[in-house]
Amino acid sequence: MSKVVLGGGLSGLSAAYYAINKFPNQVITLLEKSDRLGGWLKSTRQDDGSIFEQSARTIRPSGEAGANTLQLLNELGLNHEIVPILKNSPAALNRMIYVNGKLHLLPNSLGSLFKKQEPFSKPLYRYFLNDVFATKKKIVDNDESLYSFVDRRFGTEIADYLISPMVCGICGGNAKEISVKFLMKSIFEKEQEYGSVTRGIIADFFNKKEKVTPVYTQLEQRANTEKWSVYSFKNGIETLPNALRKEVSSKGVKIDLNQDIQEIEVHKKSILVNKADGTVLLANHLISCIPALSLAPLLKKQHPYLSKMLSSFETASMCVVNLKYNKKLLQQEGFGFLVAPKENLPLLGVIYDSCCFPYEDSTILTAMLGGFKFNTYFNEKTTAEEVLSIVTKNLEKILNISDQPDNFKVSILNQCIPQYTVGHSKKIGLIEDYLRDNDLPLSLCGASYYGVGVNDVILSAKKAVDGL
Ligand SMILES: Cc1cc2nc3c(=O)[nH]c(=O)nc-3n(C[C@H](O)[C@H](O)[C@H](O)COP(=O)(O)OP(=O)(O)OC[C@H]3O[C@@H](n4cnc5c(N)ncnc54)[C@H](O)[C@@H]3O)c2cc1C
């Protein structure tokens, strides 16, 4: 009996971890295309000690998926590596949006919901009252865009100034195309069931079954007591895949790098993987942890329907620019700012790394560009110098920073982030039906399917293994 994990990003390493724990006597092989593990997660220590993150940098401790990651960190012994951002720190409280040519602080306290605060034309609570009176719309196919849902329930300003920049910040996506279920599944369902979100929340409150007392792991307890908003690691987010690699190797998982798999055969009871060196690997189950678009061609000959469904998933590309200045330059401390798509800028947002994780007398920023607007501003010929120049011009315009960075890194990440457009969950349902109806020994996990964040991909790997 043996299992193959395809892909050595965070989801693949997590799948290998859960698989070797559940089946300690089986042969577990992890196949990775490149010469390193970790996928998009990459933390590069600079000569001066600062860390440049290529993609993810912070993790949320909340919710089922957040708790699952904390449990994993506990098991890996990473408790002392964690650096939290506390809920009462400026980095947690001060989140800004760039709209109408200016930076605006988003309301961050109960009191601020009752004050009119630019760019909104009325206090925020008034938009939420909208929901009480707005009529319910029956939605065809049980899905619509996030923008259209928020516009209907809370008004256009909330859709333009809050939701659209937020979607850019999370997945570089266009709120007018991304499914409401990506961020607001439960409140969308409340509206569909009770006629308004508010009525749904009230009904839920009264229908609440017996309260279950949650059992917290040691690390979750610490996160609650210390009031973490988000967290990262002393040596950067790559600490997590590095720890997983060490753990799974020590438990006997075979790690095979430089294996750009081009073909797999998925039969009812077996899997054949044609490896790059010409040999064939036989297994009784394959957990695919590679992006849907990479898996699609591998299944084309044998499962054209599945392959076609997988190839219809969308992704977006991004440019990520890390910048370090050897002095303090920011006028307002905070997590950073997001740009409202209405501004028509190539910039999606800027994270103030040196406010989140203070670093001597320096300013460290990460600018993210492109996303759903990538093809408007960039192409395969765009150079790092051009991207840097776009970033520095925008930083001068928005943050008044005219200095050139003392150190920088430009990464162009092709098709790095899945876009859960309207109809995503229906496609997932059809794929799951196909795998079940055909009794195929293939599980899917990773960012393409059940959530794009670090927590989501770890939980998707756990669920895939639990289901075996
Ligand atoms: C710019 C950016 C910022 C982000 N910020 C955050 C954040 O702050 N917080 C957060 O929670 N999440 C964030 N994320 C999301 C997070 O990084 C991802 O959820 C996570 O890294 C995805 O891991 P994965 O294993 O699913 O995919 P990947 O990292 O894509 O790994 C897939 C692996 O499969 C390999 N592979 C592909 N094809 C084959 C093949 N044919 N054969 C063998 N191997 C193959 C690839 O080489 C790769 O190593 C961010 C993502 C991006 C791009």
From TrEMBL:
It comes from the Eukaryota. This is Protoporphyrinogen oxidase. It comes from Holotrichia oblita (Chafer beetle).
